[in-house]
Amino acid sequence: MRVAIIGAGVAGLACAERLDSLGATTQLFDKGKRPGGRLSTLVLDDFAWDFGAQYFTVRDPRFADRISRWEAAGHVARWTDGPDGAWIGAPTMASFLAASCADRDVRFGALVQAVHPVEGGWQLSGPGWEESPFDAVVIAVPAEQAATLIGLHDLGMAREAAMVRSAPCWTLMAAFPEPLPGAPDVLRSAGAISWAARNESKPGRPSAECWVIQAGGEWSARNLERDQEGVAQDLLAHLAELIGAPLPEPIFLKAHRWRFAMPQGGNGAPLWNADLKLGACGDWCMAARIEDAWLSGHELADRVVETLGVSATPVKTAEVA
Ligand SMILES: Cc1cc2nc3c(=O)[nH]c(=O)nc-3n(C[C@H](O)[C@H](O)[C@H](O)COP(=O)(O)OP(=O)(O)OC[C@H]3O[C@@H](n4cnc5c(N)ncnc54)[C@H](O)[C@@H]3O)c2cc1C
């Protein structure tokens, strides 16, 4: 059984790991240059900023089991100075997903523009390429992009995706020549800034004073189309206000706009059409959390296997560390 998975974020890779462990063959396609999607770290010499997801928590025993093996291999760590129960990828947020890609067939730089039924299954196509046949297709991309890929084939599923609305998030990466006076490692607020964190308080990060500052959903939506320099200056001023002291002159500033950061909606489960052998997973199906994205991919793999009848006995007992 050959399954195409579109998207090598948490959800797509969780689905691939589970399918592989149940005896399927998977092929992943991602338009980006690296795995992880919204788990992103910018590293510049001795500076680093986790500018997407900040940390994750672990509640479900299936996720806990996988995390304990990644911990043993050194790909995730507890963030003891962070929020209660916080885990992070180490040394970057997506390190555990990069490890999962190591012996897996993942094609990066492969934008999938369409999926079509062909003789013997499904075909995927993008700019200047096409590949087939696949017995099943899993779409593990954000809701807004998933709706377009699904639309021609399953209107009900496309409607579920189209109903999801994602809140944007302007994120500022800043570095300072000295520690910010009197600032705790993590700040939360209900104002313009919803979260600010000293990145070097996470294990395995360089020691330079690097801050990740996230604007709240409402502020981000109101300022969505502004240029990044103006947003950077505004967020810096809001940070000074939050800390209650003037900031030293920054030595690096860069604002990143996440247009589709945090999905709201979703029906609490991945989507699967057993007749078409077409499904979708991702945080938008469940909740905007890394753990939920992982669970959506893991659970969708079980649905795929139920339909296609691959052996339910794991053929690989341990996924790659
Ligand atoms: C700023 C920010 C802060 C966050 N903070 C937290 C947090 O602290 N804790 C937490 O648990 N969660 C947090 N989240 C949410 C968390 O990042 C997501 O829930 C999770 O990463 C979603 O994973 P995913 O696999 O569903 O989607 P994604 O990570 O979006 O992965 C989708 C992948 O699909 C690829 N793709 C998209 N379209 C195509 C296409 N047509 N063809 C090929 N490839 C395609 C993309 O390149 C991407 O790699 C945050 C998110 C953001 C943006």
List the helices and strands and how they pair.
Layout: E1 2-6, H1 10-21, E2 25-30, E3 41-44, E4 47-50, H2 61-72, E5 76-78, E6 87-89, H3 95-101, E7 106-108, E8 114-118, E9 121-126, E10 129-134, E11 136-139, H4 143-150, H5 155-163, E12 165-176, E13 186-188, E14 193-198, E15 209-215, H6 217-222, H7 228-243, E16 252-264, E17 271-273, E18 278-280, H8 290-308
Parallel strand pairs: 1-2, 1-11, 2-7, 11-18
Antiparallel strand pairs: 3-4, 5-6, 8-9, 9-10, 12-15, 12-16, 13-14, 14-15, 17-18
Helix percent reads: 25-40%
Spell out which ligands are present. Answer: flavin-adenine dinucleotide
CA-atom Rg in angstroms: 20 Å
- Helices, by number, come to 8
CATH architecture label name of the largest domain: 3-Layer(bba) Sandwich
Strand order of the largest sheet: 7-2-1-11-18-17
Distance between the termini: 24 Å
- What's the number of extended β-strand segments? 18
* Assigned CATH superfamily of the largest domain: FAD/NAD(P)-binding domain
> Can you identify the CATH class of the largest domain?
Alpha Beta
Largest sheet: 6 strands, mixed
Give the total of domains.
Answer: 2
Weakly predicted, low-confidence segments: 312-321
Overall mean confidence score, pLDDT: 95
Shape descriptor? globular
Q: Could you give the order of the helices and strands?
A: EHEEEHEEHEEEEEHHEEEEHHEEEH
Strand content: 25-35%
If you consult CATH, what is the topology of the largest domain?
FAD/NAD(P)-binding domain
- Helix/strand-derived category reads alpha+beta
